[in-house]
Amino acid sequence: MARVIEADESGALTRSSVEPHGNVVILRRESSAAGHWWETTTPAQRVAWLREWIADLPPSPALPPEATHRDSMYD
């Protein structure tokens, strides 16, 4: 029987299953919802999702030209 372990707050791991087999233990990272989404969508679906997400962002003012001038980047 597999047991699920988690961790973090920098003990890392985060959601893995542990399967004992005699004197050997197998540790498998369980896929996250984000990992599952990434594996089951096509590049075109991801682009469509990203465009929709961008379109839903609230409007914001454009940066003034001086904000992108090379000299202002090193202040």
Basic shape: elongated
Percent range of helical residues: 25-40%
Low-confidence stretches: none
Strand content: 15-25%
Element layout with pairings:
Elements: E1 3-5, E2 16-21, E3 24-29, H1 33-40, H2 43-55
Tell me about this structure.
There is one protein chain. A 3-stranded antiparallel β-sheet has the order 1-2-3, with no helix packed on it. It has 75 residues and is of the alpha+beta class. The chain has one domain (3-55). It starts with a strand and ends in a 20-residue tail after the last helix. It has helices spanning 33-40, 43-55; strands at residues 3-5, 16-21, 24-29. It is elongated and about 65 Å long. It has 2 helices and 3 strands. 0% of the residues are buried. The model has no long low-confidence stretch (mean pLDDT 78). The protein is 28% helix and 20% strand.
